[in-house]
């Protein structure tokens, strides 16, 4: 299987927006851009709302059939490890191998020395095509990188081989994820990480590094935009070079996790992708859930009441809901509105407070992040929430499609 040049991870907490999401992909096609949809849902999300991976597969297949979509599409077992891989084996054809927890664990000393010996040709002044300056590479640097990352790469290889033994070797896509860790990987580290993956025989098609800055869920990028732009361009060059140097899949590309709503970095990314004719995978897991809540609020009536109830139920469980996402949210509790204040809001106030429009004076990024992690509170409403999704399907779908196409696909992929 081969992932297209441009792809989008379209997560959907409650598996109701498949058609609305796919409609955005089909709009892109009309604009002359092929974007491959990848429905993704993590073990944590399934566990939180008590769903099964088959629901994601059914959602994707049903949407494709309903809209007569003719392109490739995939279902991603998002952020998997050996502890939960069996949960996804039968229903997924895209696997995001999360090895972030293994970064920093030292591999066998003999394996590290072998890795250093295998890369002697890179020692000295190394010139990467497209890079403005030569890179000084030492044996000490290679050893440091191997010590930090080789164990994690071997875990990725072990996980890949386990999946391959359960499925046909060419029947799934492999992504390697290193984003949920404390420190970003430098472009130099990326060079040797990709070499290690190649030597382990992992046919990685996308790789998700941790970049400089904060990639908080559902809100804009926080960090040094110039530094990110430089780093992203260097990583694109490393990937482009590594394909030929190490014999990795020709369609290997970067993956940006927690990529939804990072509006300030989309234009620099777009320019770099065009400059080097490079591909990209962007994961937008939580943005569809937020658009569901916006749609409910705009619908008024019981839709608005459900949206208010979700916030009320979540507000008093701040630590419970926010702690699992501590690395990807920064919610300032004191800047959150009280449930009593929200109870008095009309549809427009609720929607504009939640919708990611920095130019709207009502927009509150604290409120948006809090709702982002509040999907557990929605799940606990059971049939009341799911019935509301069905009842207000049209207005929700309009928000979901517009958000994905206008705010994500167009600025990233469409000229």
Main sheet characteristics: 8 strands, parallel, barrel
Radius of gyration, in Å, reads 22 Å
Distance between the termini: 28 Å
The CATH topology annotation of the largest domain reads as: TIM Barrel
Mean pLDDT: 96
Low-confidence stretches: none
Number of strand segments: 10
Percent of residues in beta strands = 5-15%
Helix content: 40-55%
**Can you list the strand order of the major beta sheet?**
1-2-3-4-7-8-9-10
Task: Write up this protein.
By secondary structure, the protein is of the alpha/beta class. The chain folds into two domains: 290 residues, Alpha-Beta Barrel (TIM Barrel), CATH 3.20.20; 110 residues, no CATH class. It has 17 helices and ten strands. Strands 1-2-3-4-7-8-9-10 form an eight-stranded parallel barrel, surrounded by five helices. Helix 5 packs across helix 6. It is globular and about 70 Å long. The model has no long low-confidence stretch (mean pLDDT 96).
């Amino acid at each position: 299987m081969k992932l297209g040049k441009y792809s989008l991870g379209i997560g959907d907490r409650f598996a109701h927006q498949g058609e609305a999401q796919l409609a955005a992909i089909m709009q892109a096609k009309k604009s002359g851009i092929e974007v491959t949809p990848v429905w993704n849902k993590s073990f944590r999300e399934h566990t939180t709302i008590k769903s099964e991976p088959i629901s994601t597969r059914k959602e994707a297949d049903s949407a494709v059939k309903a809209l007569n979509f003719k392109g490739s599409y995939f279902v991603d077992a998002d952020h998997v490890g050996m502890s939960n891989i069996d949960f996804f084996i039968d229903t997924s054809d895209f696997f995001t191998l999360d090895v972030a927890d293994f970064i920093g664990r030292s591999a066998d000393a003999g394996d590290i020395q072998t890795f250093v010996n295998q890369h002697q040709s890179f020692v000295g002044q190394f010139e990467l095509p497209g890079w403005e300056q030569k890179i000084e590479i030492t044996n000490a640097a290679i050893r440091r990188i191997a010590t930090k990352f080789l164990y994690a790469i071997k875990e990725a290889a072990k996980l890949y081989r386990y999946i391959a033994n359960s499925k046909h070797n060419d029947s799934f896509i492999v992504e390697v994820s290193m984003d949920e860790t404390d420190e970003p990987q430098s472009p130099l580290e990326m060079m040797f990480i990709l070499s290690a993956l190649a030597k382990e025989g992992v046919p990685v098609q996308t790789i998700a590094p941790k970049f400089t800055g904060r990639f908080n869920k559902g809100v804009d990028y926080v960090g040094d935009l110039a530094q990110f732009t430089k780093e992203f361009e260097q990583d694109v060059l490393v990937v482009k070079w590594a394909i030929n140097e190490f014999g990795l899949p020709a369609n290997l590309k970067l993956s940006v996790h927690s990529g939804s709503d990072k509006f300030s970095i989309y234009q620099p990314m777009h320019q770099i992708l065009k400059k080097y004719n490079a591909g990209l995978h962007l994961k937008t897991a939580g943005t569809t859930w937020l658009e569901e809540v916006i749609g409910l609020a705009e619908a008024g009536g019981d839709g608005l009441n459900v949206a208010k109830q979700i916030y009320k139920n979540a507000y008093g469980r701040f630590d419970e809901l926010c702690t699992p996402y501590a690395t990807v949210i920064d919610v300032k509790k004191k800047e959150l509105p009280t449930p009593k204040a929200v109870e008095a809001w009309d549809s427009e106030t609720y929607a504009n407070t939640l919708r990611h429009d920095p130019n709207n004076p009502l927009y509150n990024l604290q409120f948006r992040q809090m709702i982002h992690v509040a999907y557990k509170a929605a799940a606990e409403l059971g049939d009341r929430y799911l019935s509301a999704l069905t009842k207000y399907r049209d207005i929700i779908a309009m928000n979901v499609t517009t958000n994905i196409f206008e705010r994500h696909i167009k600025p990233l992929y469409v000229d």
